[in-house]
Amino acid sequence: MALLGGIEAGGTKFICAVGTDPDNLQAQTRIETTTPDETLGQVVDFFRKQQKIEVIEAIGIGAFGPVGVNPGSEKFGWFLNTPKPGWQQVDFAGRMQRELGVKVGFDTDVNAAALAEHRWGNAQGLENFVYLTVGTGIGGGGMVAGKLIHGLLHPEMGHVLIPHDASADPFEGSCPFHKDCLEGLASGLAMEKRWGKKGIFLPPEHPAWALEAQYLAMGLMNYILTLSPQRIIMGGGVMAQKQLFPMVRAQVRERLNNYLDVPAIMRDIDSYIVPPGLGDKAGLAGAFALAEG
Amino acid sequence: MALLGGIEAGGTKFICAVGTDPDNLQAQTRIETTTPDETLGQVVDFFRKQQKIEVIEAIGIGAFGPVGVNPGSEKFGWFLNTPKPGWQQVDFAGRMQRELGVKVGFDTDVNAAALAEHRWGNAQGLENFVYLTVGTGIGGGGMVAGKLIHGLLHPEMGHVLIPHDASADPFEGSCPFHKDCLEGLASGLAMEKRWGKKGIFLPPEHPAWALEAQYLAMGLMNYILTLSPQRIIMGGGVMAQKQLFPMVRAQVRERLNNYLDVPAIMRDIDSYIVPPGLGDKAGLAGAFALAEG
Questions:
Q1: How many helices (H) and strands (E) are present in chain A, helices listed first?
Q2: What number of CA atoms fall less than 13 Å from residue A24's CA on the CB side?
């Protein structure tokens, strides 16, 4: 069996693994996201150690963004103007390819997770869906007509603009580029800055969650109106707070206000806005799917 | 040569034509949009008169929305919950098919125009683009991966939510479903309600246009972040005010704030946000393209 490698490159940690598929791993490691040189150096070290044991045919990477995903671009596989300090304009895929001498598949972390959900999880059989991750940041990906969404660059749907009533929520927003875009209002980082503690320390009845559901529903409404997805999968650390799902569903329905008269929203919204079928394994599984090409 | 029919079904008027292609019309008429029975009756009359002269092989329809565009749905070709009074839940394509006995191609007016721009206009060779029409209402369509965007229903991107600073612009919005969504703030109808006269009567230096450009740019920013289009084509009556284009482009760039580091936006935005290559013929041309199937 051919060995593949997978890298789930996140803003907090990189998960690297080697195996025949995501369910059959021979080695796995977790590397802290510090500086590009240190982190990418450790990634290379991990795979080189594995290469001494057995040949790795290809490595798949799902990376936090924005990254260059157009294979025709000279910045394919680069971190571009990411808000992550120190990580702007860093060649990632190219470095892996050169230093490890393997074929590299590359996409955003969310498109990787979307691909995994399409292959093994809650998006099987769907042609149009959105995968949104709400963690430290907010990232989105998905498919239209059965293909991962790519265009000029790639979707950065976490940064869509939404209404922000500053009299009800005076927090100015945490996004260094757009202040109170969706990510700036509803990411884990935004929650932490607004309430003075991480979401995980806020009890389920805290008003933070109703506000969070309101902002997320506004974002979802914009995706629904723009992409017309057959389903929306919501993952990431913030969505581990399961009380959010019913609140988000109710808000989406209320805000759409019967405009979209389809059973998926009017009747079956519980199976329209769902958590990932693969749980927190979607990211790494997606990296393996990208390695398979 | 086979004869085709095209219907550009708008909220104000229906344009119907018969010909071998949109540049070779044998008959054309304009029918006022009043009630479904009256308007659709006149449409049938027009085509029946033409059918007495020659066989019409197929008719293509591009219709204002929301309409059912999923061929598998029992409401394929219907007007659904449109804000247009009296036009909710009306079977359109089925009636044409039954009464005229021809094959009918059907999509939204904007997807029809997008298809025409892709075949003959400013979206030739592009796989991912948005076509936005800003008229009485705001509608959007386009392609992802070379296919017209369809999913659960179809995109209704004119209704995305955007920030609305009520202290700077106290107008509450004109959308009967969402009040101050993009359409509610920036459609021709919204302009008329806010300023007390139609946009066409407001001089180019009127502050209405800067506000209009601001709202449109917010909508465009959301589409760019969600769909990552290679180009955005903006048509419709409001966009006939050419002074809007440079203002919209400048606002899009300012709001994205260097987040998307791609030449199309950073350097070539004049060819990124453009009017339709087919001008106001895109709608009817798109209907013919839909008839061709």
A1: 9, 12
A2: 7
Q: Which of residues 208-247 of A touch B (CB under 8 A)?
A: 218, 221-230
Asked if the C-beta of B150 comes within 8 angstroms of chain A's C-beta atoms, the answer is yes
Task: Please enumerate in sequence order all residues whose Cβ is within 8 A of that of B124, keeping only pairs 6 or more positions apart, or say none.
Answer: B117, B118
User: Residue written as tokens 């125009």?
Assistant: B113
Dihedral-angle region of residue B179 (phi above 0 means left; psi in -120 to 50 means alpha; beta otherwise): left
Instruction: Establish if A13 touches chain B: CB-CB under 8 angstroms.
Output: no
CB A4: neighbour CB atoms within 10 A?
A: 26
Measured in degrees and rounded to the nearest 5, phi and psi for residue A266 equal -70, -30
Asked if B80's CB is within 8 angstroms of A227's CB, the reply is no
Residues of chain B with C-beta less than 8 angstroms from the C-beta of A162: 161-163
Give residue-wise pLDDT tens across range A44-86.
Answer: 999 999 999 999 999 999 998 789 888 888 999 999 888 789 9
- Distance (Å, whole) CA B256 – CA B252: 6
Smallest Cα distance from B223 to chain A, Å: 7
| Structural domains of chain B ordered from first start | 3-109+281-292 (3.30.420.40), 122-275 (3.30.420.40)
Chain B residues in contact with A152 by the CB 8 A cut-off are: 128, 224, 228-230, 260, 262, 264-265
Q: Considering the entire predicted model, what is its pTM?
A: 0.89
Which candidate, A66, A178, A47, A81, places its Cα nearest to that of A111? A66
Contact residues on chain B for A254, CB-CB shorter than 8 A: none
Q: Looking at this predicted complex, what is its ipTM?
A: 0.86
Place of tokens 């929203």: A265
CB–CB contacts below 8 A, A to B: 160
A261 interfaces chain B, CB cutoff of 8 Å: yes
- B257 to chain A, closest Cα gap in Å: 6
- To 10 degrees, what angle do helices B282-292 and B109-120 make? 90
Please write the tens of the pLDDT for every residue from A218-271.
999 999 999 989 999 999 999 999 999 999 999 999 998 877 777 888 889 999
Average pLDDT, chain B: 93
